[in-house]
UniProtKB/TrEMBL annotation:
Residues 28-173 form the SIS domain. SUPFAM superfamilies: SIS domain (SSF53697). This is Fructoselysine-6-P-deglycase FrlB-like protein. The keyword Cell inner membrane does not apply. It comes from the Bacteria. Keywords: Repeat.
Length: 297
């Protein structure tokens, strides 16, 4: 931390056990989300798109109904969906607002939004606001995971173990080798793929690190070529058989995530913050980025 500067990212990411527990208790808000059996799409930009991918996998494989996830700018929403869920921290992102505006009167829209005063609140049919998880840092940490905690709870999952794991992730002493690593590749399977993508994004945003991310089974199809001493391959959730040994044979470090994948993301957020500090960067205001992407007409 640079002297004299308040670091919002640090306090926000450390608050995640509390914000996840709060989201898990929001039964009335969870009831506004699509009902079991409905065919839906979930849209977002950047971090929200990756969380949408995780929610879509959990919802569909849990038998709750067909669920697609799209980047808001590339969404195919004229497919007879019963509802479209728009996930956005700011509620001001241009692509999300345009998409929801185009659906008015045709498809039910549900917004999951950090800023309860944003224009999207009035634009959607139903708004679930999470102001307690909103953030001052440009780099998202707790809003994204709190939204996913809300989604997981709405699907009937208990989050006690995930919340406990998040506490462990926050209390853990970071290995200096992770702070000093040259390169990171994040991997996951199933719902953890979206979280792997999000971990890589956090590293790029906060610390300008070279990071990549893939579904775990795709890693052998080319990306393993960059594994080497001084680099890290970090898997969220249970890894495919033999993958750790293959990475170790390259000389790279294989970080086998043993916590709930959402808590493993908290570990990656802490490493991103540590790397930003080591480089003298401001993780709250990364270069070339703003809190919300608002495009001029």
């Amino acid at each position: 931390m640079i002297a004299g500067r308040i670091e919002h990212m640090a306090s926000e990411l450390a608050s995640q056990p509390e914000t996840w527990a709060a989201a898990a208790s929001l039964t009335a808000e969870q009831a506004l989300l699509p009902a079991r059996g409905e065919r839906i799409a979930v849209v977002g930009c950047g971090t929200s798109w990756f969380i949408a991918q995780s929610y879509a996998w959990l919802r569909e494989t849990g038998g709750h109904g067909e669920t697609d996830a799209f980047a808001a700018s590339e969404a195919f929403v004229d497919r007879g969906y019963d509802a479209v869920v728009a996930l956005t921290r700011s509620g001001t992102t241009t692509e999300v607002l345009q998409l929801v505006e185009g659906l008015r009167g045709r498809v039910r829209t549900i917004g999951v939004i950090g800023d309860a005063t944003s224009p999207l609140v009035e634009l959607v049919d139903d708004a679930v606001t999470l102001p307690f998880a909103d953030e001052r840092s440009v780099v998202q940490t707790r809003f994204a995971t709190t939204a996913l905690a809300l989604f997981r709870s709405s699907l009937g999952e208990r989050l006690d173990d995930a919340i406990a794991d998040a506490g462990l992730a926050i209390a853990e002493e970071l290995d200096p080798a992770l702070i000093d690593a040259e390169q990171f590749t994040f991997l996951g399977r199933g719902w953890a793929v979206g979280l792997a993508h999000e971990a890589a994004l956090k590293m790029r945003e906060a610390s300008q690190s070279w990071t990549e991310s893939y579904p775990a089974m795709e890693y052998r199809h080319g990306p393993i070529a960059i594994a080497a001493p001084g680099r890290v391959t970090w898997h969220f959730g249970e890894a495919p058989d033999g993958l750790g040994d293959e990475v170790a044979a390259t000389g790279a470090r294989f970080e086998a995530g043993r916590l709930d994948p959402m808590a493993e993301l908290v570990r990656a957020q802490r490493v991103a913050l540590g790397r930003a500090r080591a480089k003298g960067l401001d993780p709250d205001s990364p270069r070339n980025l703003t809190r919300s992407v608002i495009l001029d007409d």
